[in-house]
Structure formats: C-alpha cells, structure tokens
Design goal:
Layout lengths: L1 H12 L3 H44 L6 H12 L9 E6 L13 H5 L14 E9 H4 L11 E9 L2
Helix pairs in contact: 2-3
Length: about 160
C-alpha cells in the first residue's frame, strides 16, 4: 500500500514538468520547422526564376519576338509561383561578353548593361534575360533580417 501512495506523491510533484519542458522545446522546434519550410519556398522561387528566364530567353531568341513578348512570357511562367508584378524582369544586351573587355561580375554591373529590343537583334547577338525579386516580397513569413536578400535568375542566349 505504501508503494502506491509513494508513486502518487511522485506523480503530483512532477505534474508540471511536462508542461515546462514543452514550453521550452516547442518554440525552438516550431522555429526549426518553419525555417525549413521557408528555406524550401525560397529555393523553389529561385528555381522558378531561373526556369522562367531560361524559357523566356529561348522564346526571345527566335525571329519575330519582341522584348515585351519575352517579359510577358516570363511573367506568365512566374504566375504559377509568385505574383509576377513583384518581379523585375530585364532584357539586356550582353555583347560586352563577346568583345573581350572586362566583363561585368556583380548583379549591379549586369543590370547596368544596356537594355535591348529583341526584335532588332542581329543574328548570333548575345543577350540576357534576368528576373529578380526581393525575398520578403514573396516570403511565406517575412523576416526583418532577410530584407536585403534578393532572389534572382538569369539566362544568356544568342539570337537566331
């Protein structure tokens, strides 16, 4: 009989420990799970940006297409994953890569390349389709410390 009462006393003493342990572990666990989901979403958006620019560049490399056609095609592809109005889409003349001079290295230098009208491109002229979007604009849970992160995709191709 004494054994039963001793277990009951121990259970009463430990009654709140499960709640306290859960209070410590649950927020950390939820933060970890939500971070994984958010990271996966960011990778998905980045892959969609790269795929959309690649498809837009392929479409723009053919005769009879305009820059507006390319930009709209990229937006149509992006529409399945994000609001396409949040993305900045650029079509740039990439002849500088063929000229042998110093080539742009950073995203800002690439974006400083001259704009290009695809319908007026010469055969074999190199051009670039680039799309970028701020991470917090497309995040499931926007995070203040990620405000400077830009997701981007680009594709180089020659006009046919």
């Amino acid at each position: 009989m004494q054994l039963c009462s001793r277990n009951a006393v121990d259970r009463r003493r430990r009654r709140g420990t499960t709640i306290v342990e859960t209070a410590f572990v649950l927020p950390v666990f939820l933060l970890f799970v939500l971070s994984l989901v958010e990271f996966g979403h960011a990778l998905m958006v980045n892959n969609v940006l790269r795929s959309a620019t690649r498809a837009g560049a392929r479409m723009g490399s053919t005769e009879g297409r305009t820059t507006a056609d390319v930009e709209q095609y990229v937006k149509d592809i992006l529409d399945g994953a994000i609001d396409p109005e949040l993305a900045e889409i650029m079509v740039k003349n990439a002849d500088v890569y063929d000229q042998g001079s110093s080539t742009p290295d950073s995203g800002q230098e690439i974006e400083a390349l001259p704009d290009m009208e695809v319908s007026g491109a010469e055969p074999r002229q190199l051009f670039l389709v680039r799309a970028r979007v701020a991470y917090n604009d497309v995040a499931l849970v926007p995070m203040p410390f990620m405000s400077d992160v830009i997701l981007e995709g680009q594709a180089f191709i020659r006009h046919e």
